């Protein structure tokens, strides 16, 4: 099989437990780029929390792309949006009211990757962690503090894993017209309907004239399942969820043992 695009999740996939990219991962990605294969970082993170990894890997220019915010935005490496889907201001206000009624910690992201919450008392540690990895602070704002044109790319309910285990079905039942998924420990995220990594990979592949059979997707969490299923070859990490592994064609080594590099080496035979 001749591959033309590799979509790679970041956290617990490309990055090891220290949040670094291994030497082998870097080398195999560099070889793929030299062979004119698109390397597309595909994450729930916003632009600001992804760009440093793209730069470290040498992914640059108007003909290279990132999929950010869990598939809500596709942009080239000059920051031009190829696709953008948002949740309305009405949804944002209703969501904040829902979190207050149910005593939930939350944050939301705008199209520029800014992180907002109105929880100004006992802000959850996972909310702070999301803002920290975004390297741009946390904005404390009430909906009425923001313009009526304010829209978001995703809404996130934050909490300890046991708490999220207890409420996930309740949240899914409360937001049936949206894509609700666990994206990591501490994060339960809500996206516009049909916004996911799989549909974003399909959109970008179609734009570039690449058949999905020529796409490799590599991931570890349930939010990666749509792209693992839609790609010609889906690769799950050894540390992946059982759902991700079931959706994949094969399982590579874990994120602390060059899983991405080993998968690329095997599939591209480099």
Count every beta strand, where a strand is a DSSP E run of 2 or more residues: 14
Structural class: alpha/beta
Name the overall outline.
globular
Average pLDDT, all residues: 95
List the strand order in the largest sheet: 5-4-3-2-1-12-13-14
Strand content: 15-25%
Sketch the topology as an H/E string, one letter per element.
EHHEHEEEHEEHEEHEEHEHEHEH
Report the helical percentage. 25-40%
Largest sheet: 8 strands, mixed
Rg (C-alpha, Å): 18 Å
Unreliably modeled segments: none
Distance between the termini: 13 Å
Number of helices: 10
Structure explained in plain terms:
The protein is of the alpha/beta class and 270 residues long. Helices cover 35% and strands 21% of the residues. It has ten helices and 14 strands. The chain has an eight-stranded mixed β-sheet.
Helix-strand blueprint:
Layout: E1 5-8, H1 10-14, H2 23-34, E2 38-42, H3 51-57, E3 65-68, E4 73-76, E5 81-84, H4 89-101, E6 105-109, E7 115-117, H5 125-134, E8 139-140, E9 154-158, H6 161-174, E10 179-184, E11 187-191, H7 197-208, E12 215-219, H8 225-230, E13 233-236, H9 242-247, E14 250-251, H10 259-268
Parallel strand pairs: 1-2, 1-12, 2-3, 7-8, 12-13, 13-14
Antiparallel strand pairs: 3-4, 4-5, 6-7, 6-9, 9-11, 10-11
Helix pairs in contact: 2-10
What keywords describe this structure?
14 strands
TL;DR of this structure?
By secondary structure, the protein is of the alpha/beta class. It is 35% helix and 21% strand. It is built from 10 helices and 14 strands.
């Amino acid at each position: 099989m001749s591959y033309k695009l590799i979509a790679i999740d970041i956290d617990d996939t490309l990055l090891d437990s220290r949040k670094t990219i291994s030497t082998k991962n870097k080398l195999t990605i560099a070889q793929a780029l030299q062979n004119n294969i698109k390397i597309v970082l595909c994450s729930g993170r916003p632009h600001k929390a992804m760009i440093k990894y793209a730069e470290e890997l040498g992914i640059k220019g108007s003909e290279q792309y990132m999929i950010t915010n869990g598939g809500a935005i596709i942009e080239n490496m000059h920051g031009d949006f190829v696709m953008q889907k948002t949740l309305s201001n009405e949804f944002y206000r209703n969501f904040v009211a829902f979190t207050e009624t149910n005593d939930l910690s939350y944050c939301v992201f705008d199209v520029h990757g800014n992180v907002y919450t109105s929880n100004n008392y006992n802000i959850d540690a996972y909310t702070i962690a999301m803002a920290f990895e975004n390297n741009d602070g946390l904005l404390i704002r009430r909906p009425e503090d923001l313009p009526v044109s304010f829209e978001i790319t995703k809404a996130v309910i934050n909490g300890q894993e046991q708490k999220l285990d207890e409420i996930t079905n309740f949240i899914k039942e409360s937001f049936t017209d949206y894509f609700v998924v666990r994206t990591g420990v501490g994060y339960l995220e809500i996206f516009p309907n049909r916004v996911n990594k799989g549909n974003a990979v399909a959109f970008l592949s179609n734009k570039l004239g690449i058949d999905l059979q020529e796409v490799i997707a590599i991931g570890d969490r349930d939010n990666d399942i749509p792209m693992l299923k839609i790609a010609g070859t889906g690769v799950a990490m050894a540390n992946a969820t059982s759902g991700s592994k079931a959706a994949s064609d094969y399982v590579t080594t874990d994120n602390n043992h060059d899983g991405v590099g080993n998968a690329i080496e095997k599939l591209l035979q480099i």
